[in-house]
Recover the amino acids of this structure.
């Protein structure tokens, strides 16, 4: 264990101190395989589900979607062996997982055809806590012949509709982030709306959260013209319209949002420059998105950039579990790793 190190960010102003302790542990590791892009959710049964992509390397046709089950045991955590949930002839990538209010579990991901470059957004569902999975459903839109990708979990609205933040390039050349919507539990997704579309910077890998006051918040990864900073946009009408993207004083990508029980927003993200690692910041409750504190979860990562894509849950004891993929400074293949900690 080690103390959290707070950052002195030149654009953040003052930060609040916190006495969090960090515990790092491995969820899945295979020295001959590339494990990456995880997501975690906690079921109502308190069981943890971690999904991730396993392949021979960062991009290859052997990519498949894996699942690991975890349980809290007193003050400890125990994870089972990985199991395959989807394996097609294409590269299956970037899975995310959510449990809906009716108990249905959805995993959304995308498939990449390495020969044609086509992308296909896909969803699989389970009605028995993830022990079995139904047929894969493919989501396509006429204006996006190359396809759309995703990197964050589906969000259930108070109306019962489902929304998913996606990104890609339209046939007219416009690139950016979009929101798609389903009114039948994820079977069909007929609606697509712009979320953050811009020629510069280009916004990709959006993450989405429903805030306690009913707003939708999206955080966006920006390309080099955005200098790698995280941007944010807000919807007051469940995604019909979005505010113009604004830059946060946070550098890193991609990013995950966790709405905590006290309504603070925990944002975690990969930091792919030295000292490479995983970082977090806390945004204050209410209407403000000011950064209250920013901290390093770890800074012992490999400088090759093979790390990040964090996802977090708040455990019943108030601790946070952040899952991500990570290559340490010794190199080798990345593993699925978690950090457990408590915010002040």
């Amino acid at each position: 264990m080690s103390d959290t190190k707070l950052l002195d960010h030149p654009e953040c102003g003052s930060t609040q101190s916190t006495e969090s302790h960090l515990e790092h542990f491995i969820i899945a590791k295979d020295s001959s395989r590339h494990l990456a892009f995880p997501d975690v959710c906690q079921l109502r049964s308190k069981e943890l589900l971690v999904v991730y992509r396993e392949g021979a390397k960062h991009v290859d046709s052997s990519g498949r979607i894996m699942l690991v089950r975890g349980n809290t045991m007193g003050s400890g955590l125990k994870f089972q062996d990985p199991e395959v949930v989807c394996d097609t002839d294409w590269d299956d990538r970037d899975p995310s997982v959510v449990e809906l209010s009716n108990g249905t579990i959805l995993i959304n991901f995308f498939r990449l055809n390495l020969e044609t470059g086509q992308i296909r957004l896909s969803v699989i569902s389970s009605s028995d806590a993830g022990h079995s999975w139904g047929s894969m459903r493919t989501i396509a839109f006429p204006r996006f012949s190359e396809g759309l990708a995703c990197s964050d979990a589906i969000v259930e609205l108070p109306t019962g509709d489902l929304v998913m933040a996606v990104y890609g390039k339209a046939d007219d050349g416009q690139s950016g982030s979009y929101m798609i919507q389903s009114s039948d539990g994820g079977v069909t997704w007929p609606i697509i709306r712009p979320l953050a579309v811009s020629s510069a910077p280009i916004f990709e890998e959006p993450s989405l959260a429903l805030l306690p006051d009913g707003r939708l918040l999206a955080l966006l990864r920006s390309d080099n013209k955005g200098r790698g900073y995280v941007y944010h946009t807000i919807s007051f009408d469940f995604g019909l319209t979005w505010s113009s993207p604004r830059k946060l004083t946070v550098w890193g990508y991609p990013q995950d949002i966790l709405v905590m029980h006290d309504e603070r927003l925990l944002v975690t993200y990969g930091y792919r420059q030295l000292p490479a690692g995983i970082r977090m910041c806390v945004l204050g409750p209410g209407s403000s998105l000011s950064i209250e504190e920013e901290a390093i979860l770890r800074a012992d990562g490999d400088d090759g950039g093979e790390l990040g894509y964090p996802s977090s849950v708040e455990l019943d004891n108030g601790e946070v579990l952040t899952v991500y993929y990570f290559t340490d400074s010794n190199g080798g293949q990345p593993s699925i790793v978690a950090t457990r900690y408590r915010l002040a």
In short: Residues 1-30+253-344 form one domain. The CA atoms of residues 306 and 327 lie 6 Å apart.
